[in-house]
Design a protein that fits this description.
The complex is a heterodimer of chains A (319) and B (433). The relative contact order of chain A is 0.14. Chain A contains 11 helices and 15 strands. Helix content of chain A is 36%, strand content 30%. In chain A, α3 (95-105) crosses α4 (110-123). Classes of the chains: A alpha/beta (319), B mainly alpha (433).
């Protein structure tokens, strides 16, 4: 059985008549980098606030590190490092004071804090800005400092709400690398994002949320397999006659589950073959088509990116 | 016991247990104090007075009033210690030790047996806290606030400008008054008194305007700057947060008060003002600062926006510092008219007693009237604490307290209530709209 560090069961949160979270059941394995994806208003932040004990659910259960967010709220807080989507600014503090303050709030003894702060600043590459005022940092550096803050008390899981939002490309890549580094250190990372490239780049798991409901979740491999159950091979043909020829040829080839005629492109006919075979099978399919004397101009396998998967499963419902 | 109503860990449970002991102690002291007050005022029992304060040396009824005042002080002290323990404040064990030692000294010196209650509860809680001594620490919130306030030359500049303005005001007052005053030690004493009252008055105004403003935004600004959730997600407790915010704001105000003490002491050069008056005025100013600061903190915890919190805090301060004394002085005028009209209270000592005490209470509601009346008592009765008043109707005596003591008890109790209410409001896990 998978060791789950975050688990929710039929989580519901209503604000008056508005249902922000509608029966979410999440399963985040320990050590995963879990991308929590969904359109604005899908309920990502509300779910994260429930997991961080900042909001009480209307019904359902949520556990972090095996602890109930309702009954063991204090211990849950020890187990999580939370970074909200907005950087809370204390404009009258130095970088080291900011970390020192939060370390004190997490009951880290005064004698241990100096070394801890040095290590954290080293980790997020901010050691050279130790004595700078926090409000003088760029947004990217503030996010890194914020990430260092979440690590003050060595939590098992980091819950990060849009950590890369509003960052320039370089800062985004740096944050991404930092998250991978933290995952290597054994932290579980649960983060929400709009940037699907980040998810496909670093995530081991993904959960897609829409209108307060989880519409798909699992490991990246599972999700790819689930959302794209067969390979899609596009064959570009010289003329329309070849289309009929190809249809009759492939109907007898194993693992071919369908043939669809596509819109011609540049005056050339195109056909999509849905194929469940492996690489060897693809090669044999290619040879069979050439062997049948069909005039083929192009033969390529389409790989759907995450964006296409996302568009396919979501319905564009905005609450 | 984090900012919202999260569960307690074992250490906090132990601290909470000791806090409850202190709360029970405070309640016991307050009950004894109120009972002694009622008995002392209306049903003097020499035996009881002798039992509670057997070496007072004064009249039995006066002894009971002294017992009442001391018990109420003990109650307020134990409440403060209870809040301090919950906030894991470094000063709270010292406060407990002070309460225990003070009551022990009073027991030995005056036979203040009622103090045994506070002594026992303070010692009981203190013994339970001995094992938790490593839990007490410098308040991180207060430390952060003070770091911000004292950073760079800003604090130095504020103190310098403040002292400069106060000095200029003192010089101006001296220049104006010395031209009209005569010569000799009596005139010098009068000059000293005017300077002292002038400086204390300016400090009071300063407290009335600065104390609520410096605390009314303290908690709401965390919401406005989006840092409140960051704190709520940590292990910081609501008492530590509220007390830290209050400390951060008030410490700087106390620095200003202390910085002006040398100016107040100028009055010693002229005479006319004694050390007792300086101490009484300092206590009144400090208690006022604490109570008005607590007013600001309460509204800051209760409202999301600093502007709303500030407006409401100033509203209550205006009521406490201006409306209540104004209505009080009107009521006092009526009371005084009744007292000086011989027909009204003739042969009615009970009515006269009630009117005298109503007058004492009304003069004790404002720091200005409390200070002026305390000084009058000091000059006329040579007492800064208790004395016996004489009833016109019967010629009998009734025990009286100096108004500054009554003011201190009332406003410390008000501050304690507001701080506890602020902690309660902070603990409530409020949902976004």
């Amino acid at each position: 059985m998978t060791d789950l560090i975050i688990q929710t069961q039929d989580l519901v949160k209503r604000f008056g008549k508005f249902t922000a979270v509608n029966g979410i059941s999440l399963a985040v394995p320990r050590g995963a980098i879990y991308g929590f994806v969904g359109p604005n208003g899908a309920g990502k932040t509300t779910t994260m606030r429930i997991l961080t004990t900042l909001t009480r659910q209307t019904s359902g259960e949520a556990w972090v590190n095996g602890l109930s967010t309702l009954q063991d709220a204090r211990e849950v807080r020890r187990a999580i490092g939370y970074m909200p989507d907005e950087f809370g600014v204390y404009d009258d503090m130095r970088v080291w004071e900011y970390l020192d303050f939060f370390a004190a709030c997490y009951d880290i003894p005064e004698g241990e804090r100096r070394k801890l702060i040095e290590d954290l600043l080293e980790l997020v590459d901010l050691a050279h800005r130790r004595d700078d005022m926090v409000d003088k940092l760029s947004k990217g550096l503030k996010q890194r400092l914020s990430l260092a803050r979440t690590l003050c008390h060595d939590p098992a899981v980091l819950i990060l709400d849009e950590p890369a939002s509003g960052l320039d490309p370089r800062a985004r890549v740096e944050i991404r690398e930092l998250l991978v580094e933290l995952a290597k250190m054994g932290k579980t990372i649960f983060f929400s994002t709009h940037i699907l490239a980040d998810v496909s780049e670093i995530c081991t798991h993904i959960g897609i949320l829409e209108a307060g409901e989880v519409i798909a979740q699992g490991s990246m491999e599972e999700m790819r397999a689930k959302l794209q159950p067969h390979r899609e091979i596009t064959v570009t043909l010289k003329d329309q006659d070849a289309v009929e020829a190809i249809k009759s040829t492939v109907s007898n080839i194993p693992h071919v589950v369908g043939v669809t005629e596509l819109e011609p492109k540049g005056g050339r006919a195109r056909v999509r073959i849905d194929f469940t075979g492996d690489d060897e099978g693809v090669s044999q399919l290619n040879q069979a088509l050439y062997g049948a004397g069909i005039a083929i101009l192009g033969f390529s396998e389409e790989t759907r990116d995450l964006e296409a998967m996302f568009m396919r499963v979501t319905k564009g419902i905005v609450t | 016991m984090t900012l919202s109503d999260a569960s307690l860990d074992p250490r906090d449970q132990r601290l909470e247990r000791q806090g409850r002991i202190l709360a029970w102690g405070a309640a016991a002291c307050a009950l004894i104090g109120l009972a002694a007050l009622l008995l002392g005022l209306f049903l003097p029992l020499p035996a009881l007075a002798g039992m509670l304060l057997f070496r007072s040396g004064g009249a039995p009824d006066s002894g009971l009033v002294a017992v009442a005042a001391l018990c109420l002080f003990n109650g307020v002290g134990l409440v403060a210690a209870r809040v301090g323990v919950a906030a894991r404040e470094l000063w709270s064990p010292f406060l407990l030790a002070l309460i225990a030692a003070g009551n022990l000294i009073l027991l030995i010196a005056l036979g203040f047996t009622a103090g045994l209650v506070a002594l026992v509860f303070a010692a009981w809680a203190g013994a339970g806290l001995w094992g938790e001594r490593a839990s007490f620490r410098r308040n991180p919130v207060a430390l952060r606030e003070l770091r911000g306030r004292m950073r760079g030359g800003r604090a130095f500049l504020v103190i310098t400008v403040y002292i400069g303005l106060m000095s200029a005001f003192t010089l101006l007052l001296y220049a104006i008054y010395s031209t009209t005053a005569g010569y000799g030690s009596a005139a010098a004493g009068e000059t000293g008194r005017v300077l002292f009252i002038g400086i204390a008055g300016i400090e009071l105004l300063l407290i009335i305007f600065i104390a609520p403003a410096s605390t009314a935004g303290a908690i709401s600004i965390e919401r406005e700057h989006l840092t409140y959730d960051l704190l709520r997600a940590t292990l910081l407790s609501a008492p530590a947060f509220v007390v830290g915010k209050l400390e951060g704001a008030l410490v700087f105000l106390f620095v200003l008060l202390l910085a002006a003490l040398p100016l107040q002491s100028l009055a010693f050069l002229f005479g006319g003002v004694g050390e007792t008056e300086v101490v009484i005025v300092f206590v009144l100013l400090a208690v006022t600062a604490l109570a008005l600061g607590a007013t600001g903190i309460y509204f800051s915890a209760a409202h999301d926006r600093s502007l709303t919190a500030t407006v409401r805090a100033y509203g209550l301060v205006a009521v406490l510092m201006f409306a209540v004394p104004l209505l009080g002085s009107l009521a006092l005028e009526i009371v005084n008219q009744l007292l000086i009209n011989p027909g009204a209270v003739t042969n009615q000592p009970a009515l006269e007693t009630v009117l005298v005490y109503a007058g004492l209470l009304l003069t004790s509601l404002s720091p200005v009237t409390a200070a002026l009346n305390s000084q009058q008592v000091l000059v006329e009765r040579q007492s800064a604490l208790f004395w016996n008043g004489t009833l016109a109707s019967s010629g009998g005596t009734i025990p009286m307290l100096s108004p500054w003591i009554v003011y201190t008890i009332i406003y410390l109790a008000l501050a304690a209530l507001l701080i506890m209410a602020a902690i309660r409001r902070t603990r409530q896990n409020r949902e976004p709209a």
